[in-house]
Amino acid sequence: MYTQLFQVLAPVFMAALFAFMAVYLLLFGKQLEMSKRVEEVVGRHRPTIREKELSEPFMKRVFRPFLQKLVRVASRMLPSEKEAVISRKITMAGRPGGLGPREFMAIKLMLAVCGPALAVLADSLLSLKTGNLLAVSAAAAAGGWILPDIYLRRQTDERKNEVEKTLPDVLDLITVSMEAGMGFDGAIMKVAEKSKGPLPQEFLIVLQECKMGKSRKDALRDMADRVDVDDLSTFVGSVIMADQLGISLSNIMRLQSEEVRRKRRQRAEEKAMKAPVKMLIPMVTCIFPAIFVVLLGPAAINIYQALVL
Fold first, then answer.
1. What is the pLDDT of residues 68-98, one digit of tens each?
2. 161-266 has which fold?
3. What pTM did the predictor assign?
C-alpha cells in the first residue's frame, strides 16, 4: 500500500517542483540576471547600519555596551595613580581584548558581583546553611575580583617568555638585513613583515612612533619599558650607546645575538638542574609510599602474625 502511494506521490511532487522552478525563472529570471550584471559593474550592495550592527559578534554588540555602563561606575572609584599602574600592567600583557584600565576595573567589579549571585543561585538548588552561604559568597566575590589579575599576570609571563624565545632569531634577521645594505629602520621593518609575535609588533610600534616624530632613542626605551625583559633592555641600551658613539650596529647586533643565546642556554641548564629537586616532591609523596607498601607489607604481616601467635 505504502509503495503504491509513494509511486503515485513522487512523480506528482517532482512535477510540482519543476513547475514551480519554471514559473519562478519565467517571472524573475530577467531580474536576477540584471541584478547580477549590476552587481558586477557597480559592486555589491552596501550593508545598512543595522546590517553592520547585526554582523558584529555577540560579545561586541551586547557585552561592550553593558561594560561601558560599568566603566562609569569604575571610573569614580579608580584614582589616577591606580589607573596608571593598571594601564602599565595591561600594556605589559599586550592589551588583551583591547581593554583599557577602566574597562578592566569594570570587569573585576562585574565578576565580583556575579560570584555571590551565582552562590545565591546555587543555594536555591543545594539549600546551603547560612554560614556556608556567606563563606561561599565571600570566596566567590574574592575569586571574581582576583581572577582578572591572575589572567593578566599569566598573559604577561607568556608574552615575556615569547619575547625571550624569539629575540635571538630576530637579532640575527636584523643583522643579516643590515649586512645586506639596509639601515636599522629598514631592518626593523623587514622583521615586522617577516616575523610574527609580540616582538615584531613592538618593533612596528617603534617605527610608527618614529614616523610620528618621536626620536628613535625614546621609542626604543619605551619599547623596553613596555616589554620589561632584561635581554631586550640590554639590546636597546647597546643600540642607543652605539648610535651615540657612532659604532657599527651590525657588530653590536651579532654580539647581542650571541649573548642572548648564551643566556638562554644558561637558563635552560638552570631549569634542568632544578628538575631533580622538583621531582623529589611527587616521588616522596606518591611513589615512595607505594614502594614501601609493596616491599615491607609482606614482612610486616609476617612479623605481626609471629608476634600474635
1. 666 666 666 667 777 788 888 888 888 887 7
2. Receptor-associated Protein (1.20.81)
3. 0.64
